[in-house]
Specification:
- It is a single chain.
- The chain is mainly beta and 130 residues long.
- It is built from one helix and nine strands.
- The protein has one helix at residues 115-118, and strands at 23-24, 29-40, 49-55, 69-72, 74-77, 80-91, 96-103, 108-109, 120-127.
- The strands form two sheets. Strands 2, 5, 6, 8 and 9 form a five-stranded antiparallel sheet that branches. A four-stranded antiparallel sheet has the order 1-7-3-4, with no helix packed on it.
- The termini are far apart.
- The model has no long low-confidence stretch (mean pLDDT 80).
């Protein structure tokens, strides 16, 4: 959805990405969740930013203590932080994952029209649950 829609893909025909803030899995299984963020302050310096991928929690800056994937973001320039992480997690049908970011200042994802191309959240089925 949005400016990066042409760069997005969903082989389920939209079933996994009907909500712009989360990805819902269609069947139970093991999923590889990969996330990369570029956050930029539109007003000046950005001293810190941390990101997490939560299971069945809304996104925004709501970083759960139970998040299965958390990572800090390193400095690429004074007003921009970048980070990435990946984890394999067991999910049930109907579970969803969402990205949360908490930063020391107001931030935007990426920069301009390329924002959605720079920040990504991918959920890939890798097998049945043990």
């Amino acid at each position: 959805m949005g400016a990066g829609a042409a760069l997005s893909y969903d082989i389920t025909g939209g079933a996994m990405s009907r909500d712009p803030y989360r990805i819902t899995v269609p069947v139970a299984g093991l999923y590889e969740v990969t996330c990369g963020v570029v956050v930029r302050s539109p007003t000046g310096a950005l001293p810190f930013a941390v990101a997490a991928v939560n299971r069945n929690r809304e996104g925004g800056d709501n970083i759960s203590s139970l998040a299965f994937l958390r990572f800090g973001c390193g400095r690429s320039e004074s007003r921009e932080k970048v980070g990435a992480g990946s984890a394999t997690v067991a999910l049930d049908a109907g579970d969803y994952v969402s990205l949360a970011v908490n930063a020391s200042d107001v931030y935007v994802f990426g920069d301009g029209d390329a924002a959605q191309a720079l920040t990504h959240l991918e959920v890939r089925w890798v097998g049945v649950r043990p």
